[in-house]
Specification:
single chain, 5 helices, 2 strands
Protein backbone atom coordinates (compact mmCIF):
# COMPACT_ATOMS: atom_id res chain seq x y z
CA UNK A 1 0.00 0.00 0.00
CA UNK A 2 1.64 3.19 -1.20
CA UNK A 3 -1.11 5.78 -0.70
CA UNK A 4 -0.27 7.66 2.53
CA UNK A 5 -3.93 8.38 3.36
CA UNK A 6 -4.92 4.72 3.01
CA UNK A 7 -1.85 3.64 4.96
CA UNK A 8 -2.88 5.99 7.78
CA UNK A 9 -6.47 4.76 7.58
CA UNK A 10 -5.38 1.14 7.81
CA UNK A 11 -3.29 1.98 10.89
CA UNK A 12 -6.23 3.78 12.55
CA UNK A 13 -8.65 0.92 11.83
CA UNK A 14 -6.27 -1.82 12.92
CA UNK A 15 -4.98 -0.15 16.08
CA UNK A 16 -7.96 1.88 17.29
CA UNK A 17 -10.83 -0.34 16.19
CA UNK A 18 -9.92 -3.93 15.41
CA UNK A 19 -7.61 -4.29 18.40
CA UNK A 20 -10.45 -3.27 20.72
CA UNK A 21 -12.90 -5.64 19.03
CA UNK A 22 -10.35 -8.43 19.40
CA UNK A 23 -10.08 -7.61 23.12
CA UNK A 24 -13.88 -7.69 23.44
CA UNK A 25 -14.03 -11.04 21.66
CA UNK A 26 -11.40 -12.40 24.03
CA UNK A 27 -13.42 -11.13 26.96
CA UNK A 28 -16.62 -12.82 25.73
CA UNK A 29 -14.73 -16.08 25.14
CA UNK A 30 -12.99 -15.96 28.52
CA UNK A 31 -9.59 -15.82 26.88
CA UNK A 32 -8.02 -13.24 29.22
CA UNK A 33 -6.65 -14.42 32.56
CA UNK A 34 -6.26 -11.22 34.58
CA UNK A 35 -8.62 -10.76 37.53
CA UNK A 36 -10.68 -7.90 36.06
CA UNK A 37 -11.18 -9.69 32.73
CA UNK A 38 -12.25 -12.87 34.51
CA UNK A 39 -14.78 -10.88 36.53
CA UNK A 40 -16.16 -9.17 33.41
CA UNK A 41 -16.34 -12.49 31.57
CA UNK A 42 -18.31 -14.01 34.44
CA UNK A 43 -20.79 -11.11 34.32
CA UNK A 44 -21.09 -11.20 30.53
CA UNK A 45 -21.63 -14.97 30.60
CA UNK A 46 -24.92 -14.39 32.40
CA UNK A 47 -26.23 -12.09 29.64
CA UNK A 48 -28.68 -13.27 27.02
CA UNK A 49 -27.72 -13.08 23.36
CA UNK A 50 -29.81 -9.90 23.03
CA UNK A 51 -28.07 -8.30 26.00
CA UNK A 52 -24.68 -9.19 24.54
CA UNK A 53 -25.79 -7.64 21.26
CA UNK A 54 -26.59 -4.40 23.12
CA UNK A 55 -23.10 -4.42 24.66
CA UNK A 56 -21.59 -4.97 21.21
CA UNK A 57 -23.73 -2.15 19.77
CA UNK A 58 -22.50 0.17 22.52
CA UNK A 59 -18.92 -0.87 21.75
CA UNK A 60 -19.48 -0.13 18.04
CA UNK A 61 -20.92 3.28 18.82
CA UNK A 62 -18.11 4.16 21.23
CA UNK A 63 -15.39 3.06 18.80
CA UNK A 64 -17.02 4.89 15.90
CA UNK A 65 -17.41 8.08 17.93
CA UNK A 66 -13.86 7.89 19.27
CA UNK A 67 -12.39 7.37 15.79
CA UNK A 68 -14.55 10.16 14.35
CA UNK A 69 -13.61 12.63 17.09
CA UNK A 70 -9.91 11.71 16.95
CA UNK A 71 -9.83 12.21 13.18
CA UNK A 72 -11.88 15.42 13.42
CA UNK A 73 -9.39 16.80 15.96
CA UNK A 74 -6.50 16.06 13.61
CA UNK A 75 -8.34 17.67 10.68
CA UNK A 76 -9.43 20.71 12.69
CA UNK A 77 -5.97 21.27 14.16
CA UNK A 78 -4.47 21.11 10.70
CA UNK A 79 -7.09 23.43 9.20
CA UNK A 80 -6.64 25.98 11.99
CA UNK A 81 -2.85 25.57 11.87
CA UNK A 82 -3.07 24.75 15.56
CA UNK A 83 0.09 22.69 15.88
CA UNK A 84 -1.04 19.09 15.44
CA UNK A 85 -0.05 17.59 12.13
CA UNK A 86 0.08 13.90 11.25
CA UNK A 87 2.37 12.70 8.49
CA UNK A 88 2.47 9.35 6.75
CA UNK A 89 5.33 8.76 4.31
CA UNK A 90 6.17 12.44 4.50
CA UNK A 91 2.64 13.60 3.56
CA UNK A 92 0.26 15.53 5.80
CA UNK A 93 -2.78 13.21 5.95
CA UNK A 94 -5.24 16.02 6.71
CA UNK A 95 -4.22 17.77 3.52
CA UNK A 96 -4.86 14.59 1.54
CA UNK A 97 -8.49 14.43 2.67
CA UNK A 98 -11.46 16.75 2.50
CA UNK A 99 -12.34 15.54 6.02
CA UNK A 100 -10.48 12.76 7.81
CA UNK A 101 -13.45 12.09 10.08
CA UNK A 102 -15.54 11.06 7.06
CA UNK A 103 -12.95 8.60 5.74
CA UNK A 104 -14.13 5.83 8.06
CA UNK A 105 -17.68 5.61 6.67
CA UNK A 106 -19.35 3.94 3.70
CA UNK A 107 -18.43 1.20 1.27
CA UNK A 108 -15.27 3.03 0.24
CA UNK A 109 -14.45 3.97 3.83
CA UNK A 110 -11.57 2.70 5.87
CA UNK A 111 -13.64 0.43 8.10
CA UNK A 112 -15.18 -1.39 5.15
CA UNK A 113 -11.87 -1.68 3.32
CA UNK A 114 -9.43 -2.39 6.15
CA UNK A 115 -11.22 -3.85 9.16
CA UNK A 116 -11.16 -7.57 9.84
CA UNK A 117 -14.54 -7.12 11.50
CA UNK A 118 -16.32 -4.70 9.15
CA UNK A 119 -19.34 -2.95 10.57
CA UNK A 120 -21.16 -4.63 13.37
CA UNK A 121 -24.49 -2.86 13.38
CA UNK A 122 -27.24 -5.41 12.66
CA UNK A 123 -28.32 -3.53 9.53
CA UNK A 124 -24.73 -3.35 8.24
CA UNK A 125 -23.92 -7.08 7.93
CA UNK A 126 -23.03 -7.56 11.57
CA UNK A 127 -21.58 -10.99 10.99
CA UNK A 128 -18.69 -10.99 13.47
CA UNK A 129 -21.00 -10.46 16.43
CA UNK A 130 -23.41 -13.21 15.51
CA UNK A 131 -20.55 -15.63 14.80
CA UNK A 132 -18.97 -14.76 18.12
CA UNK A 133 -22.17 -15.16 20.12
CA UNK A 134 -23.33 -18.28 18.29
CA UNK A 135 -20.01 -19.95 19.05
CA UNK A 136 -20.31 -19.15 22.75
CA UNK A 137 -23.80 -20.34 23.66
Amino acid sequence: MNDPLDKFGKLVVEKLRDKQIDAFQGLIKGKWRDKKSKELHAKLSKFTLNQKQVVADVLEEALENAMHDFLFAIQESNDLDDGLKVYMNGKNVAELSDGLHGEIFGEEGWVHRFSRHKSFYPDNNSNWIMKLFNNNK
